[in-house]
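User: Good morning. I'm curious how NAP would be positioned relative to this chain. Could you predict the structure with it bound?
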Amino acid sequence: MAGKLIDGKELAKNLRGEIAAGVTDLKAKGGVTPGLAVILVGENPASVSYVTAKEKACAEAGMYSREIRLPATISEQELLDEIAHLNVDPAIHGILVQLPLPKGFDEKKVIDAIAPEKDVDGFTPVNVGKMLIGETCFLPCTPHGIIKLIEFSGMDLRGKHAVVIGRSNIVGKPVAVLLARKETNATVTLCHTGTPDVAAFTRTADVVVVATGRPNTLTGDMLKPGAVVIDVGVNRIPDATKPKGFRLVGDADFASCAAVASAITPVPGGVGPMTITMLLWNTLESARRTVALRRGF
Ligand code: NAP
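Assistant: Good morning! Here's the predicted structure, ligand included:
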C-alpha cells in the first residue's frame, strides 16, 4: 500500500476524549448532563447493533442515554406521541429515530416531528435548510465526520477539487454542501448514476468521497496520483471464512485505490466511528445551548 491510512478510530478517540471533557465541564459548571434518546422501532438486527453502539458511546462520554424500544406493531401516531413527549423532556437534549423504520411508517413525517433544537442527527428540514444557507445548526453526523477525516488526513481543502459520488440526502448532498462552504472552499463536483463518465471527473480530483452503496464504484485507475479517498460505503459480502458469514467492504476497491492515493479511509474503521462521534458532539452542543439559554446568552 502506497497511501497512508486515515484512521477513523484514532480521530474518533481523540474527539471523544474532548467531548467527555466537555461533558464533565458542563456538569460541573452548568449542572446539566447531556441526554440522548434513541428510538428503535422493530427488531432490525443492524439497527439493534447501531443503537447498542450509540448507548455505549454515550456512557463512555459520561452522557445520559435513554433507549426507547417500540414494537413494529405500534401505530405511527403512538410513535409521534413518544417524540412529542421527548421534545419537551428537559433531561433529553438530543432525539434520534433509528432508520430505516419498518414498512408502513412515513419516515419523513416522523423525522419532521423531532424538535429542530433536539435534532442531533441534523435530518429535519429546518437543520438541512440552515446548513444550506450557512446558519448555526446541527450538521448531519456522517457528512460532518467526513469533513473532519479529510482535515485529519492533512489536506487543506481550500481551492482543491473535490468529487462526491452519490447524491443521497443523508450523505452525498450534505457532503457536497459542506465541502463548498466558504470556510472549506473546495470546488465541488457531484456525480450520480446520471453522470456518463464518473472517471473523467475523479481523475482530476484532489479528494474523492464515494457513497454509493456499491462495491468497486471507485478503482485506482479512476484516481489522480496522490488523491485523498474517503470511502463511506458499508457493504456485506458473503464470506464463509468469517465467523459471521460475511465481511465488510466499502464502495472503493481498497487495494487498487490505496496504491494510487496519498491517503484513504479503511472499511471498517474509517467513516463509521466518526458518525457516532459527531452524534455525541451534537448532543453536547445541544446541552450547552440549553445552559446558555437559561443564563440568557
Ligand atoms: P443511497 O441512498 O443508496 O444513495 C446512493 C447514491 O449513489 C445515489 O445518489 C445513487 O445515484 C448513487 N450511485 C449508485 N451507484 C452509482 C454509480 N455506479 N455511479 C455513480 N453514482 C452511483 O446510499 P447512502 O445512504 O448515501 O449510503 C451510501 C453508502 O454509505 C452505503 O453503503 C451506506 O451503508 C453507507 N453509509 C455509511 C455510513 C457510516 O456511518 N459509515 C453512514 C451512512 C451511509 P442516484 O441518485 O442516481 O440513484
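The mean pLDDT is 96. The first helix runs from residue 8 to 30.
Let me know if you'd like a different ligand tried.
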